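hey all, quick one before standup. I had two proteins in the batch that finished overnight and I want to keep them in one place so we stop losing track of which output belongs to which input. First protein below, input sequence then structure tokens straight from the run.
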Amino acid sequence: VLLAGCVKPPDVAPLAASIAERPVRVAPLLSGTLFGEEIARAAAASPQVARSDAGVREAKAALLAEQAGVFPDLSVGLRLPTGGASLVPAVTLTQLLFDGGAQSARERAAEATILGQQAGQLDAASQALLEAVAAWADVAATTRLLDAAEVTLDELEWVTAQIEERQDAGAGSSADVLT
């Protein structure tokens, strides 16, 4: 157990570098446009992104709490000595000298948790961007379908009017009406 403190803790730098290399962004073609700005704003306002931001802050707070474990612990109180009739003030100072690497391992675990939360944050932002763009694409496709349906309706109304004119003039047949 004593030699466990001599073991080098795992290096989280490669994981941190891989997360830093994955920025979430709107494509350069869209970034300067009003559409790109609106998509980015919608993604930033996403509840999933807000939840992942909170997770990152929580993980950072946990790391700070773990790092506080290496500071001395000062306790102040009153103590009743055995056989004594009065209280005696007591001050206790405790300092961790060696823990077999447990503190370092807890700090690395907290750092890894932060990195995991940051990766989750990137995923949430990417998902929010994808959902916003997909919603826009659905609206655009539906708008085009509606426009095509309106053109088709106009054409059918025109054809129907032509058939009715021929029918009223006596030049039409029942085949015109049925087609």
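OK second protein, same deal, sequence then tokens:
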Amino acid sequence: AVQAIAVVHEAPELLSQGHDHFGHAGRDEAGVVRFDLVVDVVGVKVDRANRLLLGHKRGVSVFDLKGTLVATVAAVQPSAFFVDDAGRIVFARDGSLHTERGASMPVLVPQPAPKPAKPVDEIPSVVALSTGHRVLVDKKERNVIRLGADGRYVGLFATATNTERLATNSLDDVAILDKD
């Protein structure tokens, strides 16, 4: 279990004063870990090592149980991220999935013959299942699709959705936050 409570919020008054950080972790009087200077949060997750991962417009910051920043994965404007079965941070940007070590794979959706596969334009959310499969939102096409552990298209997961966020639990149930 995570022993630190994270409070994530925007601090526009600090940002307007010229602070420009990946993230800042400190403790308030009650001992609560606070991340005050994080800009444009895209997600918060806890990995298998009980580290807190905080995705933001410049990448993913990794904090230990004490709230100390222990690693940062740089990324320009990621829209979502997850931790794969190998423990690597994978983030979505510009219709592709990118690993923290630089490998990149565009997400392609097959089309009826003779049309070529169509790349996904915008991925606002993606989650990984215990099987290694990924479930992600194809915002433009208003679909949620399933990819294999190798990143290849498996099939539609849900259609005609206006999905903003996805979440999973330990049973691989997928929650879909639909704006409609």
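Flagging for whoever picks this up: The radius of gyration is 17 Å. The longest helix spans residues 12-15.
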